[in-house]
From TrEMBL:
<dbReference type="GO" id="GO:0051607">
    <property type="term" value="P:defense response to virus"/>
</dbReference>
<keyword id="KW-0694">RNA-binding</keyword>
<comment type="function">
    <text>CRISPR (clustered regularly interspaced short palindromic repeat) is an adaptive immune system that provides protection against mobile genetic elements (viruses, transposable elements and conjugative plasmids). CRISPR clusters contain spacers, sequences complementary to antecedent mobile elements, and target invading nucleic acids. CRISPR clusters are transcribed and processed into CRISPR RNA (crRNA).</text>
</comment>
<dbReference type="InterPro" id="IPR021124">
    <property type="entry name" value="CRISPR-assoc_prot_Cas5"/>
</dbReference>
<dbReference type="InterPro" id="IPR010155">
    <property type="entry name" value="CRISPR-assoc_prot_Cas5d"/>
</dbReference>
<keyword id="KW-0255">Endonuclease</keyword>
<dbReference type="Pfam" id="PF09704">
    <property type="entry name" value="Cas_Cas5d"/>
</dbReference>
<keyword id="KW-0051">Antiviral defense</keyword>
<dbReference type="GO" id="GO:0004519">
    <property type="term" value="F:endonuclease activity"/>
</dbReference>
<keyword id="KW-0378">Hydrolase</keyword>
<protein>
    <recommendedName>
        <fullName>pre-crRNA processing endonuclease</fullName>
        <ecNumber>3.1.-.-</ecNumber>
    </recommendedName>
</protein>
<dbReference type="GO" id="GO:0003723">
    <property type="term" value="F:RNA binding"/>
</dbReference>
<keyword id="KW-0540">Nuclease</keyword>
<comment type="similarity">
    <text>Belongs to the CRISPR-associated protein Cas5 family. Subtype I-C/Dvulg subfamily.</text>
</comment>
<dbReference type="GO" id="GO:0016787">
    <property type="term" value="F:hydrolase activity"/>
</dbReference>
<dbReference type="InterPro" id="IPR013422">
    <property type="entry name" value="CRISPR-assoc_prot_Cas5_N"/>
</dbReference>
<dbReference type="GO" id="GO:0043571">
    <property type="term" value="P:maintenance of CRISPR repeat elements"/>
</dbReference>
Amino acid sequence: MTGLEIWGDFACFTRPELKVERFSYPVITPSAARGIFEAVYWKPEFRWVVDRIELLTMPRWIGLRRNEVKDKAPSERTIRQWMTGKTNIEPIWADGDAFWLGTDQKGRTQRQTMALQQPHYRVFAHIEPWPGYESYQRKFEAQFERRAKHGQCIYQPYLGCREFPAYFAWVDDRVDNPVKPIALDADWGWMLYDVFSRQIPGTPEASPQIQLFRCVVRSGVVEVPHYTSEEVVSS
């Protein structure tokens, strides 16, 4: 098991039932934590599994009002045609509508976001190699440790939304950290666990599923169940 200390200015781990006017969960979700570990180091031969989340600051919400475009990005096929020059690029215009642009674009709108302010966590996870790659376990862990210690990442990790960058530092789980989790006990109910398949990629059963778990905080620590546990349910 290895760990990262993660912090930032803002974060928004959007509750799926409130996706229009975004409202953040009070703590980072296992899927968002997994994404930060993958931003530091990832290979298709293994999967990151989050074990424990420690809260180092009390959750504090802040209301943000942001302009968002109402159109979605086109399909992957269309984007590839743009990249190869087969078709002309058609950008999404933030300002304008059918009257001004002569298109069916919807323009932008203002939406409210209830984000977290100054989030700070210590997250522990481990690498689970896919069958056939178990012998590379130590090698994967050593590569992750080297990259995390030097602040290297494949892309800038973020806290729920890409406009909220995450900063990280490697944590040695063998050393007792002087910064303790906050004194908090709470039951925050059902929380998003992840959206992935429990099966090996490429198999017929490997279709993504939404998983949930009961987020219980004891002394500032969320013990995240394994994805094969009965505590993790599919919606």
